[in-house]
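So, read this over?
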Amino acid sequence: MSSQTDGLRRFVVERGLGDGWTPSDARVVLVAAGKGGIGTSTVAALLALSFAEQGRRTLLIDGDDQAGTQHHWFGVEPRIGIGAMRTSGIEPREAVIQASEMLDLLPGGGVADAAQPLLTTSERRMVWRRVAGLYSDYDFVVIDGGCRLDTIIAASTAGVRRLAAVSAADPVALAATYALLKAIDSRIPGLPVDFVANGHDEGRARALYDHVQMASQRWLRRGLNYGGTIPEDVHMRERLAAGGTFAGTAPNSPAVSAAVTLGGRVIAELDDVARRSIAPTAYAWRR
């Protein structure tokens, strides 16, 4: 990596354009995309469900501070959305809802009408610092970061372990994924990134990964990991589109099976990181 690139990164961090990245003791996975309509929320929900199904106490955070959707898919009614966390008198724990035995949800929303101005950059960072106080209560945290860069950056700098960059096969989606990697690389140097394809089989997903990986290595001088794929699941998509929830989803459905495989891979890798860590973590992981 060139000295010019190192100098640019230091400039970005020192001038407050990015807070830099340091590994969190918590096992936090941020799921995001370069453009909307990729299925980020579905991937985040399935990944969180896979952790919970494997016996890990999990928190799913809907990062959309204007109008979140995750609560609809779990059939729960939010009391407070993450956007309301700008008010110091509201504690994040007050907003958490139990979605299943091992899965809790911090809903999105909270800034939904003209009477409530959108969060500023500093307010959004403050909100995520407060939300990060929840992480130590859980074995795993999954953040549905959507495609808004300001949300992705704020969530990342609050302390995550890795970013799962979700992409589809169309040229616009691939270009947007590369743009996301470029933005992350300039603002949050060092954040590990996993490429996750949504709506494709393993062969197609590998080809998409190779394409983005080649561009990333050539132009950004950084690599990314192959996270896996969530294949097309027509029945699950139709059920959600009709207003259904994830409750009752067949455990052997294509999307759920793939999510369990992806979740198991993440668990194994982060368990290995924890075992190889020289310094003890700030708290003991639940088993």
User: Anything to note?
Assistant: The radius of gyration is 18 Å. Residues 31-276 form a domain with the Rossmann fold fold (CATH 3.40.50.300).
